[in-house]
Amino acid sequence: MFSGIVETMAQVVKIETEHTNKHFTLRNPFGESLSIDQSIAHNGVCLTVVRLDGDLYTVTAMQETLRLTNLDLLREGDYVNVERSMLMGGRLDGHIVQGHVDQTARCIEAKETDGSWYYRFEYASTRDMIERGYFCVDKGSVTINGVSLTVCEPDVKGEKGYVSVCIIPYTHDNTNFKYIKEGTVVNIEFDILGKYLSRMNQLLK
């Protein structure tokens, strides 16, 4: 379980393909403090540490994870947002994030607006997906590339969903949002509370 408060960025230093899996070796400031089997969110994807080598660590993504997320697009030298799992009894500064990315979204607008940054994303949306809770509500929570954000201007048109977010300069400068531009593919996890309520509504019909 995570909060969507990114700790730092990790750089991909090596990518190995084994059958349908990919092994990502990364470096970040807290790499030496990690342990085998520890869960780390990478661009919002919960992955398990499988190998350690000094300040380097390796995680493995299986085919289904690669299909649903932007991890398959990573190249050596890229930066991902990383967060260790929440500590019980600590403050929940973001919102409840599972680390189970629902799908990818594409940036269709990115601009600076008088000191803050505005981004708009589009994603696939069908009636079935909406009924399962894959949608956004105004002022609700959404996780994009592992960052807990407040929703603004949510919309659905045809089979496309839209969501906008505004971020402060600190978030822009200390996450890989600073690399996002029009056309960039990001990971999106919808609010788990919305998913439960949507599922309950379906069961009670």
Q: Structurally, how many domains make up the residues?
A: 2
Count of strand segments: 13
Mean pLDDT rating: 94
Structural class: mainly beta
Please write the CATH class name of the largest domain: Mainly Beta
**Largest β sheet strand count, sense and barrel closure:** 7 strands, antiparallel
Explain what this protein looks like in three dimensions.
By secondary structure, the chain is mainly beta. It has 2 domains: 8-84, Elongation Factor Tu (Ef-tu), domain 3, CATH 2.40.30.20; 103-204, Elongation Factor Tu (Ef-tu), domain 3 (Beta Barrel). Helix content is 15%, strand content 44%. It is built from 4 helices and 13 strands. Strands 10-9-13-7-8-12-11 form a 7-stranded antiparallel β-sheet. A hairpin with a 2-residue loop joins strand 1 and strand 2. The longest helix has 13 residues, at 192-204. It starts with 7 loop residues before the first strand and ends with a helix. The mean pLDDT is 94.
Compile the SSE list and pairings.
Elements: E1 8-18, E2 21-27, E3 39-42, E4 45-53, E5 56-61, H1 63-68, E6 79-84, E7 103-113, E8 116-124, H2 127-131, E9 141-144, E10 147-150, E11 152-157, E12 160-167, H3 169-174, E13 185-190, H4 192-204
Antiparallel strand pairs: 1-2, 1-6, 2-5, 3-4, 3-6, 4-5, 7-8, 7-13, 8-12, 9-10, 9-13, 11-12
Features:
mainly beta; Elongation Factor Tu (Ef-tu), domain 3; six-stranded antiparallel beta barrel; 13 strands
